Amino acid sequence: MENSAASPIEALDAAIQSHNPFSKTRIVTEQDVWGKGFPDVPTLNKHASDAVFQAVEQVRTSQSSQEKVTSLAITAQPGVGKSHILSRLRHRLERDGGAAFVYASVNNYTDLNLIKYQFQQTLANSFSYTANQGVMQWQEVASAMANEGLKAINADAPSLSPANLLDRFDKVCASWATKNKSFMNTLSQKVCQTKPNADPYIIRAVLWTLSKIQSAFAIRWLSGEELDKSKADELGLPANYGKTNQDREAEALNNVQQILNLVSYYNPVIICFDEIDVKNNSTDDGLPTEMVIADLVKRLHDTLHQSELGQGIVILTVMLPDTWKQKIKPMSGGTPARLSTHTKGKPIELNFLDSNSMIEIVTLWLKDFYEFRNLKPHTQLYPFEENQLKEYGKNKPAVREALTWCEENFKVSRPALPEDPLERFELALRELESGLVDYMENNSIIAKALCFGFETLKGQSIEGVMIEEVTTEIKPKAQNNDCINFKVIGTENGKVVKIGIAVMQSSQNELVAVLKRLIDYEKFDLTRGCLVRSQSKIERIKKTAQAYKLLEKLVSPQDRGGEIADLIEEQIKPLIAVYSACRKCRDYNLTEDQVFDFISQKQLTFDNPLLREILSDPSGIMPVVDDEDERQLLEDLLNPPAIDNTDESDDLSDLFSEL
Known about the structure:
Strand order of the largest sheet: 6-7-8-9-10-11
Number of strands: 11
Number of helices: 30
Largest sheet: 6 strands, mixed
Structural class: alpha/beta
Shape: globular
Mean pLDDT: 87
Strand content: 5-15%
């Protein structure tokens, strides 16, 4: 059906020619599970995800402690969507809540002799991801425990949200410390009274995750790693000092059981083992990965002792059909049954796509593609035809196979190009520039466009610099680690200049790494360094930050004498367009020499303000940055926060006035 409010076909075609949404990796990674993930068609293999949620509901509502732990196995050929199912589970739980989520990518388990210890680390890492309430999964559990402890002190105490507890926890700890009392000792003791069978150290460590200051150390301890003795003493936890990996492996199963029993008291837990079909990995005894994971699942199933009040645990394992048939099913001791209790010893099989699901998946991917670009196609499947997709869907492809086909066929039929090469070049610039999106955060494409711009100017004098060479070979290569993108070499006033250029639009942590290299003129054979970064991002750097001190060193005429070039969208966009035109010159029936000639004729790079700014004499002036820290420091000095030094009774009767 035609849409009268559709975007111009030229804009749609330009977007299609500039970016292929199906070209991104089609292998679901751990980051896709925890991050945004791929567009998900909820009806595709709905029976599998529904079975998992049904199992969660069963263990949650069961009145029998014997039925509080169950398991499922999912089998499918490569690319059919095993990891997609896990991503769907995670994102639904993040959106709607209802269970804690653990993702164990077995591909990360590098030593199968330490499988229990590595799984303990998986738990600590998984529970560090954000939950439904906008805090870490650890912190949701810690909040529930803290509220229980507070109610044990005062039955009328209000329940505090995780956000409120996080905001106030460190303040209350500090307030009590000034009175030579320990808030954590009192709170953890009260919680332990409600959980007499739980490990008091694990309870204490989980409660510490409510501290913005101490949470990272608490999670490190919960993962089984050691702490400095001083930090362990501060937290009231064993340091785990001097333990070998074998010691940690011996203790890990008990730690895992304690953690899971504690967490599942408040929320059902879904544990997902993915990528168990890893090859060329085995224990010292020769057991392959599949059998090691199956044995771990069996041990968990048999040793996780849940109370009738617990919310239950569901263990999900995904694998290839041959893995189930050839490796798991022949295992003795009831192992296959332990991997699929919920389905009575049978795995759940995933389905391939069909004509209808092919339409659904393409519609969903294109919806994201067009909405991100504020475009509205005349049909939701453009540039595909519905009959074309249905016909392909009849082949029952795997998801990965279908997305590869979409990538290869995501294109438009181009109308006849103008005969005049210059008109074709101008058409290319218009189409490519109009199709540019989401490039201001792309360090790589910006750097390539700048490098290309300088390439077109070799042999010319710009801002007093005669450009002789442009190179991306920055040596020593290993030490540079791709931080300095390229170097412009030339002469200025009879002297050799070597300008190192680094584009960095990313976080301040990455900025620090880049600046450390950009100011090391001796190591990287530079006479000047230039950082290319948006002024709005520079302004957010605090004067107390390491990045600011490095910027001062770069810019100061008495030190490095380099500069910062403001990355302005209107100045970089045409450079990306001309760079793209050269890369796509065959699409417009142009030669590379013609593209360079047209760029020179129209002086597209010669007159570009950003290129000129990079070559111009550095101003030596530091840009304005955020002075919020200084303002806050002054305010604190003028109006210091009051500290209550009055004594406090042991029953903590005035605790709630502080919280």
